[in-house]
């Protein structure tokens, strides 16, 4: 370890764009309880932050630099393995826990987040629950604003890649990469947005010319004190320094965004409904998330913000993945498509899991929020066909969502640095499945046999299109538009080493 000559700090603040699912390993309330600190406030541990950022930097920086700054530990593979003592490199970057700003409260001390529950149920081809296939977990939702810190020391021996270069590129990763924390990230959970970054640097040498960052200032610096960050460098100032260093090339984002119109009602059921003493309380409710709105009061001279909670109907990524994945299985046999020759390994596009191994999904479905519609409470009766009267005990009340629009975002491949190729059969199958969604042949959610969950596509990647009447012998115009868009998006591109990578069976 060389002599430390500089200290660099980043303060990162960000918000959750979708609910966070980060387990504590306990199952007191659900099958997977959320991770909280001693005060019962959810947080993201520094180890999770370090793992996500390291994975995002993998491939953008050379392997030796990645090991030097992020650390490395050799995995002992057995008795014949060499000693691992010399193969352990300690990380030179310190990652702090990501905690809620002001403990997730506003100025009045009211919470700006909610810990709720989600349910996952595996369904068979008849949309009936499979035996022992229900799993529930806790999530964090709301206008959650987190803050975390990164600390890195610059040493005299840092010759190949200096610490400042690593730091400003990590800032770029936070700003531009698709960062997701926690579990179920391929199904829309843990996505962040509104990232803000500032920096402070200190020269730990005597008679430093840096008046705002010398050794005396560093001794008084407290990362958790806002006043210590008053003399900071903004991200614009940080990014301007790329002219002095190498700017890492991040993976190109591959995403298709579909604007959908709900042609009726939808029922994505929340299976763990809250108990209520109200007689009109529904037996089953549409799944929702929350949003905190600040409304101005006109009854006071001084405008004060008042908190109001808005329930927003959602379609979780797990629902999209289940519906689209099941339809694609009928077209390309489980979405496990082989290549043109016998040497090509099999892809598991939607992931796979059994007792021997697990594979992560190569398709990311975002969580969709419905807007422009309204909630409706409906009651239904079962009729005795012999007597023509209501069957005893067969009254059922549910809360559904009717009308409105939403957006379905589908991302492809590893969101960081792995190149993945997609076969033409896969692209055709996905285009055909999304065409079925547009035509109403693929409905989403429950009660689809009575017309629920029917959508039509109005925009593809922001471009509005008019549906042209299909002529005999021609492909559906929506299929052609989707196929051409996906083909352009997913055309084969070489990885950094010139080789294509794929998922092994």
Automatic annotation (TrEMBL):
It holds the Pfam family RAMPs. Residues 13-192, 309-456 form the CRISPR type III-associated protein domain. The keyword Thylakoid does not apply. Keywords: Antiviral defense. GO terms for biological process: defense response to virus. The keyword Thylakoid does not apply. It comes from the Bacteria. InterPro entries: CRISPR_Csm3_endoribonuclease, RAMP_III_fam. This is CRISPR-associated RAMP protein. It comes from Lachnoanaerobaculum saburreum. The lineage of its organism: Bacteria, Bacillati, Bacillota, Clostridia, Lachnospirales.
């Amino acid at each position: 370890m060389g002599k430390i000559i500089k200290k660099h700090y980043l303060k990162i603040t960000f918000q959750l764009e979708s609910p966070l699912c980060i387990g504590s390993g306990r199952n007191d309330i659900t099958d997977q309880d959320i991770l909280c600190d001693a005060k019962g406030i959810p947080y993201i541990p520094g180890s999770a932050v370090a793992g996500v950022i390291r994975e995002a930097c993998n491939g953008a920086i050379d392997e030796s630099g990645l090991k030097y700054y992020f650390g490395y530990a050799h995995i002992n593979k057995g008795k014949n393995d060499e000693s691992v003592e010399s193969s352990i490199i300690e990380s030179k970057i310190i990652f702090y826990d990501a905690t809620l700003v002001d403990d997730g409260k506003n100025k009045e001390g009211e919470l700006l987040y909610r810990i709720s529950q989600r349910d996952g149920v595996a369904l068979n081809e008849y949309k009936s629950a499979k035996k022992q296939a229900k799993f529930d977990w806790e999530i964090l939702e709301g206008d959650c604003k987190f803050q975390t810190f990164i600390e890195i020391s610059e040493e005299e021996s840092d010759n190949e890649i200096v610490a400042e270069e690593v730091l400003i590129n990590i800032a770029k990763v936070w700003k531009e990469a698709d960062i997701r924390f926690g579990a179920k990230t391929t199904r829309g959970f843990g996505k962040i947005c509104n990232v803000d970054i500032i920096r402070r640097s200190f020269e730990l040498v005597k008679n430093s010319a840096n008046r705002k960052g010398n050794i005396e200032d560093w001794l008084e610096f407290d990362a958790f004190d806002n006043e210590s960050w008053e003399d900071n460098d903004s991200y614009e100032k940080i990014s301007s320094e790329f002219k002095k260093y190498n700017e890492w090339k991040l993976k190109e984002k591959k995403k298709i965004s579909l604007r959908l119109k709900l042609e009726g009602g939808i029922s994505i059921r929340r299976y763990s409904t809250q108990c209520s003493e109200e007689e009109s309380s529904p037996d089953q409710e549409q799944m929702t998330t929350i949003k905190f709105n600040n409304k101005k009061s006109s009854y006071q001279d001084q405008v004060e913000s008042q908190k109001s909670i808005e329930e927003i109907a959602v379609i979780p990524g797990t629902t999209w993945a289940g519906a689209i994945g099941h339809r694609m299985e009928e077209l390309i046999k489980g979405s496990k498509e082989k290549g043109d020759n016998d040497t090509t390994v099999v892809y598991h596009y939607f992931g796979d899991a059994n007792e021997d191994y697990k594979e992560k999904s190569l398709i990311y479905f975002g969580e969709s929020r419905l807007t422009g519609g309204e909630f409706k409470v409906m009651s239904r009766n079962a009729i005795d066909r012999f007597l023509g009267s209501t069957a005893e005990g067969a009254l059922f009340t549910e809360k559904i969502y009717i009308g409105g629009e939403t957006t379905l975002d589908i991302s492809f491949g590893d969101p960081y640095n792995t190149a993945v190729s997609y076969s033409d059969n896969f692209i055709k199958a996905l285009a055909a499945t999304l065409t079925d969604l547009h035509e109403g042949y693929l409905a989403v959610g429950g009660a689809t046999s009575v017309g629920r969950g029917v959508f039509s596509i109005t925009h593809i990647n922001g471009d509005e299109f008019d549906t042209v009447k299909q002529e005999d012998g021609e492909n559906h115009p929506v299929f052609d538009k989707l196929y051409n868009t996906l083909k352009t998006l997913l055309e084969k591109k070489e990885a950094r080493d010139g080789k294509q990578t794929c998922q092994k069976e």
